[in-house]
Automatic annotation (TrEMBL):
Top-rank lineage group of the source organism: Eukaryota
Chief place where the protein resides: secreted
Protein name per the record: NOE3 protein
Key words of the record: Coiled coil, Disulfide bond, Glycoprotein, Secreted, Signal, Synapse
């Protein structure tokens, strides 16, 4: 190929690369493939998953601090603020604009050469047709040379047409870049007061305020139960699984106790993921069989009801020894006062934000539920409350912030029907439904660290989320 054709080929190659890159990259770069940027007075709304909202702290009519936050999903909450992305986008657009200007200056010069060549080729083509019509008058040799030159130039005609199209595309891109720069500059001016550094500082300050706000949270009242989330399917219809609410943040061990009697084996998993996959880390052979499914792990120890007795056992996972045992005075056992499903569920041990509890029934309280707060070291009863709710009519129960919540059944249609506050020694009837997805619940316990209910639902290990109503304490509160 001759030098002019080489030059033209290089220009066309560069044009094709630029055209292809811009047609594929520019839309995704500026968001045109998903969202249209407009020049209206308001910014295009960001979806909840991409942003966060904060409703400033205020006070209720009683003067108490109320803090409301709507936060994004944890994995979407990054420090890459929209303003920083906007600034980076503007820089890219400006760089692209400069590159296109350089290319445009270079191609305009070549474009004049192309137009001249095109005119020459069209004239040559017309002459060639005229000569071909009267080729009998020419010598065969001269005709063949001319024909070969023409054959060499003919493929350039569609290439020249493409070049002109690409040149127009460059002009269109220049205009689009100019318009886009104007829009982005307007957006930047509109949110210019909140550049990345300032937004980052605002987020840091907000986090500090929220931590201070969380420290003032008092215990909450149960308002709603959602779920369940099915974690695993394993074991028999009856059993218990749990984590330690007082464990350090990085300690996520799970304990698993299948069946409600004739078993002494506790299985341990290092994490929830190991529990799901079945990667068991350790087993413990307890010195006694347990009764029921209402055990609890609290501060590194397992608390359970010894089979065929009203004795509570405290077993240390670290030492593998029994640290304490005590008889729960007058407590019924061995299916005298179980929950509605039976299973030797007479004595229910549980923990919440306040401490360790035992829920059971006695003849002295006519088979109604008794709540006792226990000393976690000695198992001594610190204080007891007698309720009027029959233990045998309860499906399950759990403690949240010193209030006992009782369900009316272990079967489909169950709801939290009754609550008793140990703080005020008062009760109320409630109506908080929850979805008993697998039709038979034999264990339901609250975990204060996770703010969730752990349940054993007919051989399914599930979690329920709870919504609590909190009151923010202020310095004026006593």
């Amino acid at each position: 190929m001759s030098p002019p054709l080489l030059k033209l080929g290089a220009v066309l190659s560069t044009m094709a690369m630029i055209s292809n890159w811009m047609s594929q990259t520019l839309p995704s770069l500026v968001g045109l493939n998903t969202t249209r940027i407009t020049t209206s007075d308001t910014l295009t709304q960001i979806s909840p998953k991409e942003g966060w909202q904060v409703y400033s702290s205020a006070q209720d009519p009683d003067g108490r601090c109320i803090c409301t936050v709507v936060a994004p999903e944890q994995n979407l909450c990054s420090r890459d603020a929209k303003s920083r992305q906007l600034r980076q986008l503007l820089e890219k657009v400006q760089n692209m604009s400069q590159s296109i200007e350089v290319l445009n200056l270079r191609t305009q010069r070549d474009f004049q050469y192309v137009l001249k060549m095109e005119t020459q080729m069209k004239g040559l083509k017309a002459k060639f047709r005229q000569i071909e019509d009267d080729r009998k008058t020419l010598m065969t040799k001269h005709f063949q040379e001319l024909k070969e030159k023409m054959d060499e130039l003919l493929p350039l005609i569609p290439v020249l047409e493409q070049y002109k199209t690409d040149a127009k595309l460059i002009t269109q891109f220049k205009e689009e870049i100019r318009n886009l720069s104007t829009v982005l500059t307007g957006i930047q001016e509109e949110i210019g007061a909140y550049d990345y550094e300032e937004l980052h500082q605002r987020v840091v300050n907000l986090e500090t305020r929220l931590r201070d706000c969380m420290k003032k949270l008092t215990c909450g009242k149960l308002m709603k139960i959602t779920g369940p989330i099915t974690v695993k399917i394993s074991g028999t219809r009856f059993g218990a699984w749990m984590t330690d609410p007082l464990a350090p943040e990085k300690n996520n061990r799970v304990w698993y106790m299948d069946s409600y009697t004739n078993n002494k084996i506790v299985r341990e998993y290092k994490s929830m993921a190991d529990f799901v996959s079945g990667a068991e880390s350790r087993t413990y052979n307890l010195p006694f069989k347990w009764a029921g499914t209402n055990h609890v792990v609290y501060n590194g120890s397992l608390y359970f009801n010894k089979y065929q007795s009203n004795i509570i056992i405290k077993y240390s996972f670290d030492t593998g020894r029994v640290l304490a045992q005590r008889s729960l005075e007058y407590a019924g056992f061995h299916n005298v006062y179980p929950y509605t499903w039976g299973g030797f569920s007479d004595i229910d041990l549980m923990a919440d934000e306040i401490g360790l509890w035992a829920v059971y029934a006695t003849n002295q309280n006519a088979g109604n539920i008794v709540i006792s707060q226990l000393n976690q070291d000695t198992l001594e009863v610190l204080k007891s409350w007698s309720t009027g709710y029959p233990k045998r009519s309860a499906g399950e129960s759990f403690m949240i912030c010193g209030t006992l919540y009782v369900t009316n059944s272990h079967l489909t249609g169950a709801k939290v029907y009754y609550s008793y506050s140990t703080k005020t020694s008062t009760y109320e009837y409630t109506d908080i439904p929850f979805h008993n997805q697998y039709f038979h619940i034999s264990m339901l316990d609250y975990n204060a660290r996770d703010r969730a209910l752990y349940a054993w639902n007919n051989g399914h290990q599930v979690l329920f989320n709870v919504t609590l109503f909190h009151i923010i304490k202020t310095e004026d509160d006593t």
